[in-house]
Structure formats: structure tokens, C-alpha cells
Task: structure prediction
Amino acid sequence: MTSKILLVTGDAAESLEVFYPYQRLREEGYQVDIAAPTKKRLQFVVHDFVEGFDTYTEKPGYTWPADVALADVDPADYAALVIPGGRAPEYLRNDPDVQRIARHFFAEDKPVAQICHGPLITAAAGLLDGRRSSAYPALAPDIKAAGAEFVDGEAVVDGVVVSARAWPDHPAWLRAFIEVLRTKAPLA
Result:
């Protein structure tokens, strides 16, 4: 059993939704590889909630290098998949390599953690039909259009898929995902 986890993201991903699972899973002892459209330094963003705004605000966030280009990913090398949110999933969902990667994890019943706008990727790949999923609440129509039941929850577990709304849900989301990992992808 491999102890490697793949985190799929790109420019304009939400900083906290990349770094929290990246660091927390490394703390557990997993190797986490960041895959993006190209192997380059990525520019993340910070989404915050400001009183008086009807939606979240966006500011420049941290930068971080991608470890591997999506086209070079062999998903068989990984035990689990993490899909952070932010704006990155809006364009990543159309990438054939992202869809190939996501389909592998679902077909092999490997653990998947998705948060915020991350479920746009699994929806576009046709993987949510008949499932239950959380996501950023504004995505409820997208989740339903993908054939899934939208659940407004901080840690929705559907088999080996764990989803959440946004970064305020991190503690419950990662706690639930790590429980799935300990069963389906335990460290040696």
C-alpha cells in the first residue's frame, strides 16, 4: 500500500484549502504531491467573508510549487485524492487529465476528499450521480444537476468520499477523511 496522496489544484485555488490538508496529511505521515496543469509555481488566493458583501471576497494568497504536471500523473501511484476549492476547479474540471485522474480514484474505490468548489471536478467527470455531497452552498444547483444529493454539512461521508463546504469546515472534514484513510489507506 502506498502512502502517497495526490492533491490536484491550480492557480486561484483557495490557500487554506490547499495548505491545511497538505500539512495535516503530512503530519499524519503521508507524502502529499501537488499536481497542477504544469509543474510551476502556483498563485493561490484567499477567500474571506466580509460583512456587507453578498458573497466571499478574493485577495492574493500564497505561492507554492507544483510537484508534478497533471499529464504526468499515474493515479495508480497514489492511495487517495484531495481536491481543494477556490476558483481552480472551475477550469480544472475541463482538463481531460483531471477527469482521468478523478475517474481512477472512484473506479478503484480509493479515498477522495473534496471541499468548496472541488466537487465541480467530480461533477464534470460524471462521478457524483447517486451520491451525497457537500460543497460551497452556492454550488447546490450544480451538485443536484450532477445527480447527487446536496448536503449542507461540514463533513459529509459517502463511502470513501468526504466533502465539506469551505475552509471553516476543515477540522471536521479532515478528521472524517483521516478516519477513511486509516481504514482504506493505512500507513505501513
Summary: Residues 170-184 form the longest helix (15 residues). The two ends are 7 Å apart (CA to CA). The first strand starts at residue 4 and ends at 8. The mean pLDDT is 97.
